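Lay summary. Proteins are chains of building blocks that fold into shapes, and those shapes determine what they do. In this project we predict the shape from the chain. Here is one chain we studied, written as its sequence of building blocks.
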Amino acid sequence: MPSTFGTTLRVTIFGQSHSAAIGCVMEGLPSGLKVDSAALARFMARRAPGQGDWSTPRKEADELRFLSGLNPDGVTCGAPLALEIANADTRPGDYADFLTIPRPGHADLTAWAKWHGNQDPRGGGHFSGRLTAPLCAAGAIALQVLEKRGVTIAAHLLSVADIDDVPFSAPAGSTDPVGSLDAQIEGLKDRWGQGLPTIDEVAGRHMLAAIAAARREGDSVGGVIECVACGFPAGIGSPMFDGMESLIAHIVFGIPAVKGIEFGLGFGAARLRGSQDNDPYRMVGGRVCPTTNNAGGILGGITTGLPLLFRMAVKPTPSIAKTQESVDLANMRDVMLTVRGRHDPCIAPRAVPVAEAAAALATLDAWLSFPPDDMAPRGDASHSDDPVR
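And here is the predicted shape, written in a compact code that computers can read:
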């Protein structure tokens, strides 16, 4: 069962929700990167459980233990980078009642069909959202590489249930769509750790109320996350199957609970005419510049030079306290199931940094594999003549 992403920058995720540890192996990282451990810890803290009433009470320190890939000074050495994160606060007894009873909305039944009862069902096993911790660790390291090239990646909760935040946007007709994002991105960074990750603080408070209401009723809610990546030059990517949209979608759908993705105007473009959807061009400072960014920074699978923009849909947490219908696979009988344990009434807030991590890994891999003026994969970036660092 491969759990590996990437062409040049390859990331493999290992572990289960209740195994001794989880972790990842990164191959193809450029050598010579000084890993900022403090920035890495801050990024991991944004995803960590136990942040409030809207999060699972499970407590995990999520401290990273590097096994290889760094020299004694914390600099990448070109070898595969391996790290692990201990699972300390596990309660496998919470899952004893439904080892043979698939939980609706989870991958229990499909895992049973594939591995015939040999899978680890505790906490969802390898399908668990717990596995986004090593994904975040890998993405945070990739983000440090990208930041040295002037790239900024940020995400926020665009919606929770039927509560909407202000979207990332640019003034109509703007010839500098990046400029209008600066204040929004800086505002999000300034408020990290203070409530939900929203641009509009009032919307965040309404979202908290919606999550609390669902929890009181033994239920859950979903949300939409919007992510933007600024600072990429034009020309990164490839047509068709290795296009930038394909690479981002590939890793985003590896995030548990994600059920949809769209770029730029996305499905909204289907309701427009071409004259409304097209991004016109204008000469600005001797450069060709789109005046709008309906395409989300990507045309033909290749970056346009404008911000990359995508939104991903996160379904309601399937573990809920309400009694639901299921079956007992041990005797093939209908049963009623009530899921106990510690679960997020809305997983979307903790998935915001996961979206940023996924975007960082996909875009860095694309930059290393399909840079401007080169449509063939370059291979291992650790041996490149022009590493991205």
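What the prediction tells us: The chain has one domain: 4-376.
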